[in-house]
């Protein structure tokens, strides 16, 4: 699903954010990208989203080399990925429902489909009864679930959560991880970017640690596997179809 082949990213001005990074995230995996501030995590995400291009090496998503991808193909790449940003990026003047519907409208999806799909994704994230509220009438955890609903609306193959614990308390972050796990259990690849060791280690999933732009640890390598699927049995596996 995601391949980094000897990827180096040097920003204009000379900052090297990633150095010769090679890794492979398989379809259906649940992976933590762990690193301190400045380690290169955001750059990693920006390369996957083609917000930035690699200075050298190759980034492949679904077999497509992003450095060769034409500008007009980039929206299609991004539609296949749902991103939950740390600051949620909700539009404050729109209700939760409208925020999610808006993400569909901009891709010219017919209204009828929007009316069916939006309540469905709110149900998936357990927020259907609050979907007509405005972001400022919701808690941080609820706003995050709205952001997740929006990320799910195009039935993506990949969900990326950027610092999911940044703006919510630990209990809620566990709830979020359970939701992400349920999403992963139906085959959607999940990448969680975090600086929190505890969170990353808690779930027994693959953890890729980045320091100073280099992969210094990859739990799947230690375990001698390409991708680890340690079980999540202590958590409820919700039945979801996304
Ligand atoms: P993280 O997300 O782990 O905090 P980043 O990917 O944002 O790390 O940053 C990695 C390194 O690249 C840092 O040294 C940072 O200062 C540098 N960097 C990030 N973005 C830019 C940019 N747009 N221009 C110049 N340097 C940047």
Order of helices and strands: EEEHEEHEHHHEHEHEEH
End-to-end separation in angstroms reads 18 Å
Q: Tell me the Rg in angstroms.
A: 18 Å
Strand content: 15-25%
Q: Note poorly predicted spans.
A: 223-239
Tally the helices: what do you get?
Answer: 8
Largest sheet composition: 6 strands, mixed
* Chemical compounds bound to the protein: adenosine-5'-diphosphate
Principal-axis shape: globular
User: Biggest sheet, strands in spatial order?
Assistant: 6-7-8-3-9-10
The total count of strands amounts to: 10
Helix content: 25-40%
Provide the structure class: alpha/beta
| Arithmetic mean of pLDDT | 88
GO molecular function, one term: transmembrane transporter activity
Function: Part of the ABC transporter FtsEX involved in cellular division.
Main location: membrane
Domain ABC transporter: 2-237
List the keywords.
globular, 31% helix, alpha/beta, 242 residues, single chain, six-stranded mixed beta sheet, four-stranded antiparallel beta sheet, 24% strand, binds adenosine-5'-diphosphate, 10 strands
Write structural notes for this entry.
There is one protein chain. The protein has 242 residues and is α/β, with parallel strands linked by helices. The chain contains eight helices and ten strands. It has a six-stranded mixed sheet with strand order 6-7-8-3-9-10, with helices on both faces. A four-stranded antiparallel sheet has the order 2-1-4-5, with helices on one face. Helix 4 (111-124) crosses helix 5. The longest helix is centred in the C-terminal third of the chain and has 15 residues, at 170-184. Residues 223-239 have low confidence and may be disordered. The structure holds adenosine-5'-diphosphate. Adenosine-5'-diphosphate binds at residues 11, 13, 15, 17, 35, 37-43. Homodimer. Forms a membrane-associated complex with FtsX. This is Cell division ATP-binding protein FtsE. Belongs to the ABC transporter superfamily.
